[in-house]
Amino acid sequence: xxxxxxxxxxxxxxxxxxxxxxxxxxxxxxxxxxxxxxxxxxxxxxxxxxxxxxxxxxxxxxxxxxxxxxxxxxxxxxxxxxxxxxxxxxxxxxxxxxxxxxxxxxxxxxxxxxxxxxxxxxxxxxxxxxxxxxxxxxxxxxxxxxxxxxxxxxxxxxxxxxxxxxxxxxxxxxxxxxxxxxxxxxxxxxxxxxxxxxxxxxxxxxxxxxxxxxxxxxxxxxxxxxxxxxxxxxxxxxxxxxxxxxxxxxxxxxxxxxxxxxxxxxxxxxxxxxxxxxxxxxxxxxxxxxxxxxxxxxxxxxxxxxxxxxxxxxxxxxxxxxxxxxxxxxxxxxxxxxxxxxxxxxxxxxxxxxxxxxxxxxxxxxxxxxxxxxxxxxxxxxxxxxxxxxxxxxxxxxxxxxxxxxxxxxxxxxxxxxxxxxxxxxxxxxxxxxxxxxxxxxxxxxxxxxxxxxxxxxxxxxxxxxxxxxxxxxxxxxxxxxxxxxxxxxxxxxxxxxxxxxxxxxxxxxxxxxxxxxxxxxxxxxxxxxxxxx
Length: 534
Fold this sequence. Notes:
The chain is mainly α. The chain contains 22 helices and 2 strands.
C-alpha cells in the first residue's frame, strides 16, 4: 500500500512546492497557483452566471457531479473490503492462534493474506486525498477571491468618489500627463513600500513596481479618449496634485442644489452614529435633534443657503462637494441613477438574504471598516480616504447584519447529518473488519461525526459567505450522492447474492444471566439440577 501511495503523495508535494512561484498579476505578490486557477474558473469559466452566489452553487454542483464516480468507487471498495474480511476471517483466526507469540510475524502473514485476497485500503485513501486537496485549495482560493473582490470594489468606488472633482480635466489634459504619472507612481511605490522590495536588484524593483502600475494603468495606454477610460481618475488626480489645482470642480449649481440634502444627511448620520451617546444622556427626540444641529453648525453655518464664486474655497463648500462625491459612491454601489431609481444591481454582491457574499453570513456589518479592509487586502493600515469614500455607504448600513447565520447552521447541520449517515452505513463494514481482526473505524467515525461539523461551523463564521455557500451546496450534494450510491450498491448486492442483501451485520454477543442460561439448558435437555427430567 505504501508503494502505491508514494507516487501520488510525491506528486502532491511537488504541486505545493511549485505553488510559491506563481505571481498575482494584480499586485505582483506571490500566491498559491490554485488561487489563480480557481479565480479563472469562477470569474471566467462560470462568468455566464451573473450572480456570484449562484455562480458558486453551479460550480459546486458541477464539481460534485464530476467527482461522484470516485465517491461511488470508494463506497464500493469499502464494501468489497468488508466482504473480503468476512471471507478470510477463519484463516485470520487460524493465523492468530498459530503466531500468538510472534506479533510481528502475525502482522506480516495477515498483510500477505489480505493482499492475496484483494483487500486494499490504498484505493480508498487516494479519493480522500483528492477531496481534501480540492477543499483546501478552494478555501484558499475563495479567500483570495474575496479579498480581491473587496479591493476591486473599493477601487471602483474610489474612482466614483473622485469623479465629481474632475469635470474640468479633459481627456487630452490627462493624456498629456500619462508619462509623468508613470514615473511618479513607480518612484512613489518604491519609496512607500521599500520594505517589500528589500533584497531585490534595481531591475527587479522596477519590474515589480511596473507590474503594480499596469494593474491600474495598462502599458498600452498612451492616451485617453474619454474621462471614463480605465486609469483616467488616477492620472487626473496626479495632474491636479502636481499642478496645485484645488478640488473645486463641482459646479456651483450642483453644490447649491445639494445644500438642503447635505443638512438632512449630516443630522441623520449624527443621530445614528452617536445614538449610544444620546441614549446614555437620556435625550428626548427634540434634544437629540438640537445637539445634532449644533454639531452641524460648527462646520456649516446655519445662514448659508447658496454658494457664490467666493465660497469655492470655504469649508462648507468642500463639505457639500464631499457629500456629492459620497452620493456618487452610494449610487454606484446600489445601482441607482441620479434620481435614486434602481437601474442595475450595482457593485454589491448579494445572494438571497446575504447583503455581501464576500463577508461572512453573520451579525457583522456588510461593509468592512477601514481596519477590516486593510486586513483583507493584506496591508497594515490604509489612509483616511477609505472612511471618506465609504461614509455614505457605511451610513446606509449602520446596524445592518450581513446575514442571519442561516448558512452557518446549514453547514453544521448538513455535515453532521452526512457524518451520522456515513457512520450508520459503515456499521456492517466496521463490524466485519473488526471481527476479522482489522482495526475498526467506529471510534474514529464517532469523533468525526462531531469534529467535522464544528470545523465547518468555524469556517462559516470566519470566512466569506461565498465559501460557506460552497460548503452548504457541497454538503447537500454529498447527502444526495451518498443516499443514491447506497441505494445502487444495495441493488447490486441483492442481484449478486440472489436477493440476500449485502454485507451481513455482525453484532457482539450480549451477556446473559446465569439463571437464563440454566433455563435455556433445561429446554435443550442438558441440565436437570432441581428439575425432574420427564
